[in-house]
Design a protein that fits this description.
The complex is a heterodimer of chains A (about 240) and B (about 450). By secondary structure, chain A is of the alpha/beta class. Chain A has two domains: about 1-80 and about 155-235, P-loop containing nucleotide triphosphate hydrolases (Rossmann fold, 3-Layer(aba) Sandwich); about 90-155, no CATH class. Helices cover about 40% and strands about 25% of the residues of chain A. Chain A has helices at about 40-50, 70-75, 95-100, 110-120, 125, 140-150, 170-185, 195-200, 220-225, 225-230, and strands at about 5-10, 15-25, 30-35, 55-60, 65, 80, 155-160, 185-190, 205-210, 210-220. In chain A, the strands form two sheets. In chain A, strands 6-7-8-3-9-10 form a six-stranded mixed beta sheet, sandwiched between helices. Chain A has a four-stranded antiparallel beta sheet with strand order 2-1-4-5, with helices on one face. The termini of chain A are far apart. Chain B has about 450 residues and is mainly α. Chain B has a single domain, classed as Orthogonal Bundle (ABC transporter involved in vitamin B12 uptake, BtuC), CATH 1.10.3470. Chain B is about 65% helix and about 0% strand. Chain B is built from 15 helices and no strands. The two termini of chain B are about 40 Å apart. Residues about 1-20 and about 425-438 of chain B have low confidence and may be disordered. In chain B, helix 3 (about 105-130) packs antiparallel against helix 13. The chains are: A alpha/beta (about 240), B mainly alpha (about 450). The interface between A and B is medium-sized, with 30 and 25 residues.
């Protein structure tokens, strides 16, 4: 097990948003966490990346308890998040954004190789390398966020709502790339509202409802689970 | 591909009577803005296209010009009437001087003040412009720097007097001016860390309010450490006099750094400004500068890239504090006397205004902001009574017309546009939802 959450609780003031979540991610897997708005998906992500302190439970990464570790040190350990939506650096160019992804690294050759790999995955970013990131379209910004996270060469890549605000065709494209990244050897935990895409791409998945995990199984199982289909796929 | 969406003029000729007035006006502004941007880009391209040696010569010529400024409008060698040979006017430059009309301030003194405030602006720009921390109490560091040289370098200081008594030193003994510099650096950086450590966990407006308090605390502490309401360190409201300069304590025998001729002081300040500009430029392009940029643009995103936000914010505070302290140090040395009321809130607000009006994040911008806010009131002394009115008016106009400042950094302009887009985007979305619900 590369990443494990044990009974993780997170509270905003006196309101508890996560009531004890347990999940795990094995090496090489794509694991999806699906749920509706306000289920606690983003909170879970922020807890894992260290932006939100835990009020209970533990996060184990690579055999080490990182529950109290600072966010920036978690990146050094190999846990990197592509935050949701527009959380790129708008005033930096695309290339400068990607460079920020490699902030914790010093191996110039490795960074250059990873940059080539990111450009390979997202040729669009190469075309726009010198452009200010804030002027990119929503889809391009999403690609940039993923590419930037890849530049850290993470052991586990955390993706927060990669499909948010994208056209259906772009969503398919993004998920194809996610599969490709996984095949190149990066473990992925993806949080998604678009259950159809997430479940069909994921090895395993969890369903989150109002701060609790209510179901887990392989992506395929959940895709055909009648309750999940009704709640998240809009099929009765 | 090259047609800019902003330059298209869809409203021209459309029959929407009610709506035409405003968009048309907006279009004029936009077109002007676009033309200005094109011109700027052209100038920048031209500049970058020059061979390196030509650029170096241009910069050097500009620096020489800055050193020549005290004689502006005349040949170098001294202003009239001391040097009749040099008493040849070079119109129209002499019109820029402030000392021509009756009651005008000495020109070199105004230049010194300009250079001093440019130092402040460059230091504050590290905190506000580079790291994105709104510090309204920068005056506090300025005061700490000023009091460092006063408390340790002046024979009038209670601390020096106590030391004289304790160790049986002569009445003329005080810590040397040069030795006061490292003391000031240590004290200001420590005060930066002391202010930063507990407060940098706060963000945005909250940080601004706490720092505002810090500036006031320093001033009030300086007033109260007078021997009655506390130990005597600062002489309280009476102030400390006889503060030394590079030539030692103020005296009529001083050849260069005297009280009357401000030219050497201006040259000293200008030299410090140049050193600061070079230093901050290096910093800006280093790993530290990159971290500041990331924190400023998105603190959370920076954290998940591995940037230790707190550490770098503390660095910004400490470096900003030292630069502000240096300016305060020079201020105290030049005037040889300080008291707590010189470090009031109004000056603190002026500091922030210099950065905001000039264009935070851009050293040229903040310098221009500082110079304008010092020079204009001096040049147009006749309108002095209206100063605060014009000042407020200028601030309001800047906020409406150019919220990014007169000469903004391109990045900052982009960030602001991005934020505005986010806000208006949210508004559109809410409007859409409202119509759907209705």
């Amino acid at each position: 097990m590369l990443l494990e959450l044990q009974d993780v609780k997170v509270a905003y003031g006196r309101i508890e948003a996560l009531h004890g979540i347990s999940l795990h991610v094995n090496e090489g897997e794509i694991v999806a966490l699906i749920g509706a708005n306000g289920a606690g998906k983003t909170t879970t992500m922020r807890a894992i990346s260290g932006l939100r302190p835990l009020s209970g439970g533990k996060i184990i990464f690579n055999g080490e308890d990182i529950s109290r570790l600072r966010a920036d040190l978690r990146v050094v350990r190999g846990l990197c998040q592509a935050p949701e939506g527009r959380q790129i650096f708008p005033g930096m160019t695309v290339l400068e954004n990607l460079d920020m992804g490699a902030y914790t690294r010093r191996d110039k050759a490795g960074i250059a190789a990873d940059l080539a790999r990111v450009y390979d995955l997202f040729p669009r970013l190469k075309e726009r390398a010198k452009q200010a990131a804030g002027t990119l379209s929503g889809g391009e910004q999403q690609m940039l966020a993923i590419g930037r996270a890849l530049m850290a060469r993470p052991k586990v890549l955390l993706l927060d709502e990669p499909s948010m605000g994208l056209a259906p065709m772009l969503i398919r494209q993004i998920f194809e790339i996610i599969t490709e990244i996984s095949q190149q050897g990066t473990t992925i935990l993806v949080v998604e509202q678009n259950a159809q895409q997430a479940l069909s791409r994921a090895h395993r998945a969890y369903v989150l409802e109002t701060g609790r995990i209510v179901k887990e199984g392989t992506g395929n199982d959940l895709l055909h689970d009648p309750a999940v289909r009704e709640a998240y796929l809009g099929v009765a | 591909m090259t047609t800019h969406p902003e330059t298209s003029t869809p409203t021209v000729g459309t029959p929407r009577h009610a709506a035409t007035a405003e968009p048309a006006e907006g279009n004029v502004l936009r077109r002007l803005n676009q033309r200005r941007r094109d011109a700027q880009a052209a100038v920048r391209q031209r500049w970058q296209g020059l061979p390196k040696w030509q650029r170096v010569i241009a910069v050097l010529a500009f620096v020489v010009f800055l050193y020549y400024l005290p004689w502006l409008g005349y040949l170098p060698g001294g202003a009239p009437p001391r040097n009749p040979v040099a008493n040849i006017q070079i119109p129209p430059f002499h019109l820029l001087r402030t000392d021509l009309g009756a009651g005008g301030s000495p020109w070199a003194a105004v230049l010194f003040t300009c250079a001093l405030y440019v130092m402040v602006a460059i230091g504050l720009n590290v905190v506000i412009g580079l790291a994105g921390l709104l510090d309204l109490g920068y005056i506090g560091f300025f005061a700490v720097g000023a009091y460092s040289v006063a408390i340790f370098g002046s024979v009038d200081s209670p601390v020096v007097q106590a030391l004289q008594e304790r160790f049986g030193l002569s009445q003329n003994w005080a810590v040397g001016w040069a030795l006061c510099i490292p003391i000031a650096i240590v004290l200001t950086s420590v005060s930066g860390v002391i202010l930063g450590w507990p407060t940098l966990r706060l963000r945005g407006d909250y940080l601004a309010i706490v720092t505002l308090g810090f500036g006031e605390i320093i001033r009030i502490a300086a007033r109260n450490l007078n021997g009655q309401s506390g130990p005597n360190i600062t002489n309280g409201p009476r102030g400390i006099s006889a503060i030394p300069g590079p030539e030692g304590p103020p005296s009529p025998d001083n050849q260069i750094f005297g009280l009357v001729d401000a030219k050497p002081w201006y040259w000293l300040a200008l030299t410090l400004v140049i050193l600061m500009v070079l230093g901050v430029r290096r910093l800006e392009h280093s790993r530290v500068g990159r971290s500041w940029l990331a924190i400023r643009e998105d603190e959370d995103a920076a954290a998940v890239m591995g940037v230790h936000g707190f550490k770098f914010k503390l660095w910004a505070f400490a470096i900003g504090a030292v630069l502000g302290g240096t300016s305060g140090f020079l201020f105290a040395s030049r005037y040889a006397y300080i008291d707590p009321n010189q470090f009031d809130l109004q000056l603190s607000i002026l500091f922030v205004a210099m950065v905001v009006i000039g264009g935070s994040g851009n050293m040229v911008g903040v310098s221009v902001g500082a110079i304008l806010l010092v020079y204009l009131p001096e040049r147009f002394r006749d309108l002095d009574e209206w100063r605060m009115l014009y000042f407020g008016l200028a601030m309001v106009l800047i906020m409406i017309l150019r919220p990014q400042g007169l000469i903004p950094s391109r990045r900052r302009a982009r960030e602001l546009a991005d934020r505005a887009e986010e806000v208006s985007g949210g508004r559109h979305r809410r409007a859409e939802e409202a119509t759907i619900n209705a």
